[in-house]
Amino acid sequence: MNFQGLNSLNIFMNKFSGNFLPVTNEKKELTVLLKIYLLIVWLTQLTYLATCIFGLFHVPSERVLKDSTINMIVSVEAIILIIYLSNRKSLLRALIGKLNYVLLVEDEVLQKAVISTTRPLEKPLRIYTIASISSVVIWTSLPFFEVFRKSEFYYTDYRVPAGLFEEPFTVGIFISGVFLQIFGSGYTITRKVSLDLYTMHLILLVTAQYKYLRIKFAAIFQQQSSKQQNSNDMIKRKLRLLTYHYGTII
């Protein structure tokens, strides 16, 4: 068991979203293609955010409160969290290294504790990922139907009010704006979901260690032996091992 092998969805979303947070204790440089992909993701997300901010000042306040507030909060939150975690990659690699070190121990109790902690959330997290991304993409795609109804468009015609060019604008500009919103909002929610999966995975693995320690401590003090001295010596040895295990993670 290791950090990577216990959650394939987390690994996939970490790459697809362009977050590229550490998944091992080794420092690895991104390839040229991945750096280009990362640049495209950031440009798309920041351009989308800029157009949404510009749109705030050109639509009625009701539309701002209804369609822009949550979008802006999620966008800013995702950017702040990405920057925060990216600046602490060395600490994340250190924590992952410690987790991988203790997970290598061939202990059936530890394996059961880890699996029983992580596996029940696998399906709910998949549903959360698919539902979050698909709902946002579908919602921002709805303005496409407006193309069949009129030939001039305004900022309010987008699902999230956005400013691109001076209104009214043509069908071509409107469609370009819709595509920008689809990819911009799609990458924003994808990066946010990926961050949720990543931090959740870390928390679950650390929680599994506490669960393992609780089980082992309970088992030690429940043991009975006819030879009290030998029993005490054995308990001391086991307690030292568990204390070392605890110290490794903490």
TrEMBL record:
Domain of life: Eukaryota
Transmembrane segments: 36-57, 69-86, 127-148, 169-189
Entry keywords, A to Z: Membrane, Transmembrane, Transmembrane helix
Name of this protein: Uncharacterized protein LOC108624813
Origin species: Ceratina calcarata
